[in-house]
Amino acid sequence: MPELKVKNSMIQVVQGDITKENTDAIVNAANKTLLGGGGVDGAIHRAGGPAILEECRKLGGCDTGDAKITTGGRLPAKYVIHTVGPVYRDGKHGEPELLKSCHVRSLEVAVANGVRTIAFPAISCGVYGYPIEEASKIAINTVKEFLETYPNCGITLVRFVMFGSDTFIPFRSALRDLGGI
Ligand code: ADP
Which is deepest, 17, 63, 103, 163, by most CB within 10 Å? Predict the structure, then answer.
């Protein structure tokens, strides 16, 4: 499994279904309403059951680049961290900064809730149309930078769980570019 040690933590890239992950938290690529959608969002609500949506209703939506937490319902993960990725237009409308912010805010919310292990999907790489190679570099570099900056944040594992080889291969390359093996 491709992985990279960063200070007190490990970053991994795997192929699989994030709803099956037994990390403390999984991240959802949600939309601003937080009221459910397709892709990974739909899969998380289907697998986690109605409790997640009930909690989401009380959160009043979420801005692009921000993140909010609920329990994991029936999921193996204790928490779901819902973040809203940017819809990709041309890369000149703040998309890179917003995608970076999704990862930083998700990690901040995780740390604030005592999460030690967390799984991310390929945020914005589905319906939101972000070019996957660019997105993979932003995602992996941002997480590495966070773990270097906050080595005592308590997070021991960040696992990128890629659904298909279209995302797995570029995310693995981005990890290897940083010295991962
Ligand atoms: P966005 O709207 O942010 O683009 P999508 O859900 O459309 O979000 O897609 C994000 C990524 O999540 C895509 O690469 C998609 O293949 C992937 N995905 C879909 N279902 C799952 C799942 N069960 N586990 C992990 N990744 C998934």
Answer: 103
